Amino acid sequence: MGRRILFITTDQQRYDTLGCNGGVIGRTPVIDQLAAEGVRYERAVPQSVVCMPSRSTMLTGQHQATHGVWMNGVPLPVDAPSVAALLRSADYRTALIGKAHFEPFMDPFERFNENRVASLGTDTIDAPQFGGGTGPHRGFDHLRFATHGATGWLHYAKWIGAEHPEAVGDYYSVVDADLEVNADGFGDTGAPQVKHNAIPREWYHTDWVAERTIEWLSGLDADDDWFCWMSFPDPHHPWDPPVSELHRVPWRDVDLPAGYPESAAERERLLDEKPRHWRLWYDGELVSNYEAPTRWIPASMTAEQVREVNAMNAIEVELIDEAIGRVLAEVDRRGWTDSLDVVFTTDHGELQGDFGLLFKGPYHVDGLMRLPMIWRPAPSAGIEANVVTAPVGLVDLAPTFASIAGLDAAEWMQGQALPTTDADADARGIDQQLTSWDSELFGVGVYLRTITRDGWVCTTYLPGAVHDGTEGELYDLAEDPLQRNNRWDDPSVRSVRDDLIAQLHDSLPPERVPALELEAPV
Amino acid sequence: MASIRRSQHIAAQADDVWALVGDAGRLAEWFPGLSDVTVEGTIRTVTLGSGIPLTEEIVTCDPISRRFAYSITGGLLRHHRGTIDVFDLGDGTTLVSYATDAEPDVMALVIGGAAGAGLRNVKALLEHDSTSGATQLIEGNT
Fold first, then answer.
1. Whether A128 and B136 lie within 8 Å, measured CB to CB
2. Distance from the CA of A22 to the CA of which of A28, A52, A143, B34 falls in 20 to 30 A?
3. What mean pLDDT do residues A225-242 have?
4. b/e code A50-78 from CB counts within 10 Å (16+ = b)
């Protein structure tokens, strides 16, 4: 018997939504306890700030340029390398329960395995494997999928449609009649993607994911080694938690986030210091990507809407925290606690009011780039609790899982096993992270390359629809934690900028050739 | 309205490419995620893998210029036109393009994206590349 691995991800969650990271709106005692017992990372960085590329990095341990999923809607090749397959080859039982999103959701053809498996009624699908042969889809023996609502082809949608059809319409409709991301709001303030959802809590997808996880665990033998990726769709919008839970965080009592300037003039001044796509989106003049409503103009957002969104988000985070607690209780009941590693993180952040913006896009600032990440090593491993400030990334997760299982990192992995102390990071040269953005939507191309290193975050822009390739952003993370002072053109830090750019170009892996095709909006 | 184009260079004769993509009834051999295809006159009825039925009107099927065009009628689509062009490059190889114009815009990407996978299937089928995983592609596992 080895160490078991519970890999918990959320979707689009900010660093500052956890109590252990200073969050004050929602309560997260279970995750905070994991942090107190384990390693809490203060500068965890995604390799992409959208779902499919980021999740592909988690699974493959590769940068976007290598795995090739360069934007949402580009499917990860079914035979891409997978840390789950590696663990399975070491006799781990493997499951992925909740949101996968390595393949597009918007698939009426049901041509992707993620969308087919529920209809097939099988635990997994036999598929080509990295290195040849066939095996379970992406190395997972057991697949149970869910996403942000009750429609579509995934297991949760089929379950609630069959068992509780009256609740399907209670969810917010993520897309509108034109299949664009919905701009409507049905809460108290009219904030987009907010709704009071009448669904009973026990039918909500957060609890469903936890219950399916417990169900899978209950079928394992006591001496099985296992790797379970439990992937909650929340707190990604829509913000429509069960209405029974709204009392937890009354939105009128929520303070405005530090990143939200109340003055429109101040918001505009800050945005104008950044590359022009920031202000163009704020004013509703440019939509570069599918991830935000095309019919919503950020400049129209009110302070009350920011409060309501933050409250609803916090409620969803609280429900996740409690769901994790139930799963950990089952782990404890089975006697696995001492041998269980728990890794908690998310795929990317959420702007959630920063600079007067919501959702996500080509904006490499902390709202999207600073992730909650906690590793509670198995108590049996004897690793002391700690806080790591060195930059780590989602690319480091796959080699971490391999290490936990006693395996060498695979040659296709590009990260390093997570450090457990800053001294460990120093000793192993873990001192930077890379993040990329590429999007091409109906003729609008935007391309960013970013390095996080030495307390700075430096972003370069490639030529695109609204950039000529000379623009950039440079922020001192210690002195400017809200990234309000873009020092790209500041001559006093020119050498810092030039060194970071040189390091960025030296570090970026080559782009996959030919590029994978965009096959769906998301 | 949005417009999406996908294309493939195929190491096969243009006549062979046209014989496949220009035959309305052979669509399921190469377009992913279809469970049924029937053709009656100029009407093609397609059932998607999810069970959604689509009715299509064949607008053009021109074996001389090797152009096939069709429109999906009804459903979510306010407008749709799919156009397949097969170009003989004169060296024994062929360029095939699949253009999708649609409203709402998102549907152009949904259909056009699948069409791109379909053209990869055509390439795999006609180039007889046993290592390309053509069978898997046809099943939709891109």
1. yes
2. A52
3. 98
4. bbbbbbbbbbbbbbbbbbbbbbbbbbbbb
